[in-house]
Amino acid sequence: MARRTFSIGGVHPSDAKISRDCKIEVLPIAPTVYIAVAQHIGAPAKPVVAPGDKVKAGDVIAEPGAFMSAYIHSSVSGTVKSIGPRQDLSGNIQTVVEIEVEGDEWKEGIDLSDTLVTDIPEDPKAIIEKVRLGGVVGLGGATFPTHVKLSLPPGKKCEMLIINGCECEPYLTSDFRTLLEKGEQVVVGTALLMQALGVDKATIAIEDNKPEAIEHISGIVSAFKAKGGKYEGIEVLPLMKKYPEGGEKQLIDAVMHRQVPSGCLPIDVGAVVDNVCTALAVYEAVQKDKPLVENSVTVTGECFPKQANLMVRVGTPLRYIIDYLGGVPQEAAKVISGGPMMGKAVANLDAATLKGTGGLLFLTREQTKRMPESSCIRCGKCSEACPMGLEPFLLRRLYKAGDMEALEANAAQDCIMCGCCLYSCPAGIPLLDIVSQARGQVMGIMRARAAAAKAAAEAAKPKTE
Amino acid sequence: MDKILVSPNPHLHSKTTTAVLMRDVVIALLPAVVVSVVFYGWKELLVLAVSVLSCVLIEWSVTKYLLRKPCTIGDWSAAVTGILLALNLPSTTPWWVVLIGAIVAIGVAKMTFGGLGQNVFNPALVGRVFLLISFPTYMTHWVQPQGLFGVDAVTGATPLGVIKEGLMQGASVPELMAGHGYSYSQMLFANIGGSAGEACAIALLVGFVYLLVRKVIKPWITLSILGTVAAVSAIFWLANPMQFTDPLFNLLTGGLILGSCFMATDYVTSPMTTKGGIVFGIGIGFITLMIRYFGSYPEGVSFAILIMNSVVPLLNKWFHQKKYGRA
């Protein structure tokens, strides 16, 4: 039987998971870590430590700046050296807390043992609060604060929790290794998320290029069914490998056969999607009181001498990780944070990891160079590939003509930046570069219009005084 | 690592380039080319060579001396046009007529519009139709396939031409079919009068399947043309088998296979969406039959494709991809 997948577009790059057999290895702690206060979508956290303060691993060093924000914890024990500006991996200036490492002491009350805790707390609010205090954010790429996602807007009901184990990006294997090595914790984390959301059904979706993970998690899920409660509602669903299956909208389409209307959220169709590593972080935050201070990072690339999956403390300098594995190879031309389709090219190797850093990929010039651009031959491969059903060739033409109205009518704002259009264009036209510009401008116009409409409504209101 | 490259995502490319796609079309046409040379001999080889060489040379000189732009012959599209033009001509076409066809195809139909991707009409078909109107004697003078070393003695009209002429003289379709000994297996495998590329339907279909397997094209346009021709001719044939030819005969003659598999599926001059492509195909099929049954030309695929080429911008405006999460 053909496996399920999402219904519109998609591409099939070689999955190149050459680090799939590398067990997650704990990286020794760097001598100095640099922990950014903005590691999530939303307001940056506000530092609550001062230079000279002694901190332990798990201590809060920055508090949420707003509801849409997250706690930041120290990932190491040591002395705060400075709080100030530092370049991130794109070269942008961010506020970071610099901590000089001394030993490896953890805050009291954090359970570092391997004992599995499978009992699910009754109170959803208590779970959400622990998730919030643990600084858990979405680890699938967007780093959306998890407690915000779990706090459903009034009137909305979650019908299904989807745990995203697709890892559809080529090369990356940290989710895969997490499923194999921390499968039980992921399943408990899933049950915790279900309890927090008040939902009885959860699907752990895994692409079929990871049969070991499908088998392993299926075994755990069926063994845990005996525990009853939320565990009874968890299913494992193998999906056909296709990029970008791990995209939230695509995954909801594949699993639930529902599409999130433009401008709406997954919860509007009754879905909540969380990554497997997020489920693990939720488990640790709720059951072990351990905040999100370390995450698994795949370090890979054909030109890289040693493939690895590492457990890395948040704020570890990239150069430290690379040097630990033998340094940057001569042939490498590009270092990518994340996967090759949606990852960011690193401009600054002195930058430090964030909570959401899932991979470091080294590509040679040959692998990553862009083709010279030639004429569009109207083959339509870009719109065949687009998982949002957009027509990149048309958006490009409209953008060149500066027709913002037509761009909005043709849904430029729906672009999810997956890169399928540019990946598949035989003429080497930088479609995504153009479409993302168009998307940004259309979104700006839509926001300005919404703000103007709001102001007009305010002004039209009769004065109550 | 001396320098670090930074660019927006994605960082990988499928490696399928325009040249790879066009080269696949050339490979797909090879069975038909080989069969046509085997059937029609060295004269066909000459037509092919003149057509391909002049198409490539004209594109090269236009880019170099007129447009002063980087040369584009490396994308193989001029070679594709050259082969298609040659397969659309009788093997007896004089070399200078072929040359004129190539000048019109590449020079007029392609480069004046701005080169690959900009042209509205299929270049090879524009070349062929130009020759058909300008040199009707050469273009309708078909030679029965005589083999690689044969002497071309027998000349005659194509099956569609024979039927058209016969009908005008008052004969009926079954009489004419029987009188000329046309059989479907002959049409499928070889040996009917016509332009070189029409000689063997099987060779063309093999190439078509190759393009499908390599995912160069989708089958919808071709299927919609063939389906329309079969359905519409079935209606006419059932209504009056004396006056109208049957569906299978219409499918296998008059370059319909060549046109529907290789000319109508041209990226540049066909619609961008599947839905648009199906409407495009229905239009081609319908117009082809109307020309065959009621027009003054015995066949009609070239005209039908060119007419529908002109509707493509409209089809692209009307039909769009199904968008995610939108009605």
Task: Give a description of the structure.
Chain A has 465 residues and is an alpha/beta fold. In chain A, 30% of the residues lie in helices and 19% in strands. A 6-stranded mixed β-sheet of chain A has the order 1-14-13-17-15-16. In chain A, strands 2-8-7-4 form a 4-stranded antiparallel β-sheet, with no helix packed on it. A 4-stranded parallel β-sheet of chain A has the order 11-10-9-12, sandwiched between helices. The longest helix of chain A has 30 residues, at 431-460. Chain A starts with 23 loop residues before the first strand and ends in a 5-residue tail after the last helix. The model of chain A has no long low-confidence stretch (mean pLDDT 93). Chain B is mainly α and 327 residues long. Chain B has 2 domains: 18-139, no CATH class; 159-192 and 217-318, no CATH class. Chain B is built from 16 helices and 2 strands. Chain B has helices at 18-40, 42-67, 77-87, 95-110, 123-134, 136-139, 159-168, 173-180, 184-189, 201-213, 220-239, 247-252, 256-263, 274-294, 301-309, 312-318, and strands at 142-143, 155-156. Chain B has a two-stranded antiparallel sheet with strand order 1-2. In chain B, helix 1 (18-40) packs parallel to helix 3, helix 3 (77-87) runs parallel beside helix 5 (123-134) and helix 10 runs parallel beside helix 13. The radius of gyration of chain B is 21 Å and the shape is globular. The mean pLDDT of chain B is 88. The chains are: A alpha/beta (465), B mainly alpha (327). At the A-B interface, strand 15, strand 16, helix 9, helix 13 and helix 14 of A face helix 1 of B.
